[in-house]
Amino acid sequence: MKSIFIGSVTEHSGKNLVVLGIAHRYKDSGRKVGYFKPFGQSPVDNQNIASDEDAIFFKKVLGLRDTLSEICPVTLTSQTMGELYGGGQFDAKAKIQKAFAKVSADKEVMLVSGFGGFAGGCCTGYSQFDAMRDLGCKALIVERYSTGERDLIDRVMGIKRLAGEGLLGVVLNMIPECKLELFRSKVVPFLKSKGIETFGIIPEDPVLHSVSVREIAAQLCGKVLCCEEELDHLVERAIVGAMNVDSALKYFRKINNKAVVTGGDRGDIQLAAMETSTRCLILTGDLYPHQNIMTVAVEKKIPIIVVPYDTLTTIDRFEAVLGHVGLRDDNKIDRALAIVSNCIDFRPIEAYVK
Amino acid sequence: MIGHLFGPKSVAVVGASLEERKVGYAVLNNMVTCGYQGKLYPVNPKGGEMMGRKVYKTLNDIDGFIELVVFVIPPLHIMQAIRDAKPNSFDTAIIISAGFKETGPDGAKLENELKALCKERNIRVMGPNCLGFIDTMAKVNASFSAGTPVEGNIAFFTQSGALGTAVLDWAIKEKIGMSKFMSLGNKMDMNEVDMLEALADDPDTHVILGYLEGIVDGRRFIDVAQRVSKKKPIIITKSGSTAAGARAISSHTGTLAGSENAYKAAFEQFGIIRSSSVEELFDLAMAFSYQSVPKGDNMVIVTNAGGPGIIAADAVEKSTVKLASLTKETVDKLKEVLPPVAALYNPVDIIGDARDDRYKNAVEILEKDPNVDSIMVILTPQSMTNATEIARAIADTNTRSSKPIFTSFMGGGLVEEGARILNENKVPNYLYPERAVNSIEAMINYRKRSEKERVFSAPFGVDKKKVKEVIARNVSRKVSQLPETDVREILQAYGFTVPKTLVAESEYDAVYTADTMGYPVVLKVCSPDIIHKSDIGGVKVNLKNADEVRKAYFDIMASAKKAMPQAVIHGVQVCEMCTGGKEVILGMTNDPTFGQMLMFGMGGVYVEVLKDVAFRIAPITGDEADGMVREIKMFPLLQGVRGEAGVDLVTIREALLRLSQLVCDFPEIMEMDINPLKVYPKASGKTVAIDARMTISVG
Q: For the segment B557-602, what is each residue's pLDDT rounded down to a tens digit?
């Protein structure tokens, strides 16, 4: 059995995207692949047990029979932190090793997922970097472009310095299209000259950062008034419609696959939004639209969601959701698999797993 | 066309009733009381007799073809009645009943089903959810209006049934004759364009009036309207011209009110007369219905009161109407019939004690003046003023006059009878002279527009293939806002000159590029994420040497990083600095109603603050391009003031025509502006598109 630790320095770098791609590849080829996450975050309530959101997701999509507490043995809840503050002993190492032994027993490949930086879990006295080493994993690092290529190179080289020979390679994610050539021609050869293999360059993809209308409605405690069958469409951006109609139209045309946040009494803005690429209307302040607007929405298959919040709160909540919802929608999973399959060179990974 | 809506020889009223509170009663009663002479079939499952006519239980019980069927039964019953009817037993229907699209998605579904059914059966439909239809000449009142107007030459179609009842009430009270009245309701099938087409060929109609909140097919509307307006005037009240009105329309009809700029441009360009209020609609209707269009711009005012005469003169001065300069012969003749204190020049003041003979003499003399194209008669009621007799005298003169006469009998009870006489004798009378001037101006403008032909120049030789490639590339990447380099490529393909521009990735590159290009240069941040470069300090102009370029490079980078830390920055664009000339803006937006609309204005602050811009619907003619340039208030600046040379207007016209061709060739372009376009002095023959943006539809 071979284990690959998929980690990153920065949050939301795209680890799950890569894990999903590799896992599917092995699963499709009939190999027994497992998922393990030593330390869990984003705890969600799963049948009264605080479980890691990613653990729940991968257990489902990979059809794993392991229990959630085996897949993710240490979930850092506020209760755990309270115990740590109180001087409680927390034998993370034992828990992790025991669980890993159990879940990896019948697997050919184990994908071990990290969170945050390598120091993740240090508060327990045992880090995920320790886990990677103790579990015999090689590291596949996923880093995303944020402020520039230099910053990304620094992060990758920093990890190389830490992991040394334990670093299998890197995947560079969310690279702006206009920078792809620079990465291919300059950055990848540069990293190679420093002993770092790049397994893939994944371009920035608006779909992967999108969120479904259904999720928006749930997160905003909204009431869906029509077009329930259109809730799986993905929204890439939310914009506020509070201007005059002529300006609104100009503005709305520039942004595709958007949610438009406006008042229930702004029928003019709602109609203008529906003239352009709009995935849903979010009407604030619990104000319901006129029947005529509903008619147009139904004709154009655009869901209308009424939310109790004011516009500012709605946008704040929306932004908190956007880009951090992971890969939970089927549309996004398909897209993710296609992207990973196109952009990652699996040969060095295969060579290691063999 | 519209089936047998006009002048039907047989009418069935499905849902006819004897219960007075029911719409079915009102429709049948209107048909009977207005004296319909054709075959009238009340239809009601109870059978029997109504208002002396046999009642048919179903449409199938009626023998032969029915030219018009009026439905006043619930929506689902209408569907059933049409399904049950023998094929080809009728081809025209008015559906008065409500309960369709206006009630919400379920109603809309029902309306769509009804539409499909009627299409399958080749039935043209007016409505649903409407007041009905009146054809005074055919003595058809298939509506639930409270009466029938007298016969006349005005046709009126309305998107608001309620406004329709008010107009009918006014027409009945004022005895304004109407030829047709049509309530369009939800416009499921027949709409304003069908009405225009039908009324164009209707010999009974001389003036077409309409009230609209939105237009179903803007392009077809303007195509038809420009043809029809050459035959007869089209006067439309289009509501929703303000933000509040537009909001109200959105809930009333579920349609976008549309851009006010687009409506204004389209109406003016294609000869549709816009009335800004219902009052103005009536004023214009009366003017066009009663009088012939003045053959020229010159008007004479005849008044018995100095003040109102001056008010009228002010109104004329503010309009496109001109005060006629009377000939010496006219003045001499007036001198003979008027008192010595009378004012003999225009306005002609015939003094407060004028009675009918003095009015008559003056008007008859003025009517013969070759410099006069129209006459406005003003009256204020003094104790010696015999307003009723004066009205009779003017009405009499009007019957023989070769020039249109308009009156303004100002006052209340003392002029009431006179006003009635004038109206009865088809002399348009207005309470205030300004309203009369406004109507005369509308008639004069109508004449001018009708005489004008739209002549298109031959298209420019352009590289359409290149633009197609650039757009396809961005569509495939789902990029709506085109990168600057792509916009430049498109502009060049359509014959625009753009400044020489090169990208520099470092300060060293920037200096090297500027050295090679020659100073002065402009530096702009090069980033697909930064659209408004100037706003974030991303543009430095007039850089004269390497040191200035180097400093500008670092300043731009620092500003851009600070303002938009997440933006991808490729470096800077080093651009040739275009000095001199004046800045104008050319723009385009794809209006949801009328399609591509062009904009022209002075660049910079003038467009943003003063909104000094002109609009036209594309494609435009050379004359229309010139018209756009001349329309802006700043036009004198382009012509040159205080000894400054004017700009080359020919190049602006060409730029507008090239833009028109581009946006019509590529309907995917949704928004575009060239801001600024530098224009240079007369005979320079050049313009330079300094900066441009474009948004396309990516599907």
A: 999 988 888 788 888 999 999 888 999 999 999 999 999 999 999 9
- Tell me the residue range of the domain where A317 lies: 211-323
Query: Residue A317: which CATH number?
Result: 3.40.1390.20
Among B residues 224-253, those touching chain A with beta carbons less than 8 Å apart: 243, 246-247, 249-253
Same domain, A144 and A184: yes
Say if CB B396 and CB B427 are below 8 A apart. no
Could you tell me if B277 and B237 are in contact, meaning their C-beta atoms sit under 8 angstroms apart?
A: yes
A277 touches chain B (CB under 8 A): yes
For B334-377, write each residue's pLDDT tens digit.
Answer: 999 999 999 999 999 999 999 999 999 999 999 999 999 999 99
- Angstrom CA distances, B692 to A49, B487, B590, stand at 57, 7, 16
Inter-chain touch B104–A294, beta carbons under 8 Å: yes
Residue tagged 């004046």 (tokens)? B582
Residues 109 to 168 of B: which have CB under 8 A from any A CB?
none
Are both A43 and A188 inside the same structural domain? yes
Both A79 and A186 in a single domain? yes
Task: Kindly give, in sequence order, each residue whose CB lies less than 8 Å from that of residue B156, ignoring residues fewer than 6 positions away.
Answer: B164, B167, B178, B180, B181, B182, B209, B210, B211, B285
Mind telling me how many Å the CA of A298 is from chain B's nearest CA?
6
Is residue A244 located within the same domain as residue A199?
Answer: no
Give the pTM.
0.83
A36 phi and psi angles, rounded to 5 deg: -145, 140
Number of domain units in chain A: 2
Whether residue A296 lies within 8 A of chain B, CB to CB, comes out as yes
Same domain, A142 and A23: yes
- In B, minimum Cα distance to A147 occurs at B566
| A124 and A248, same domain (yes or no) | no
Q: Say whether both A223 and A279 belong to one domain.
A: yes
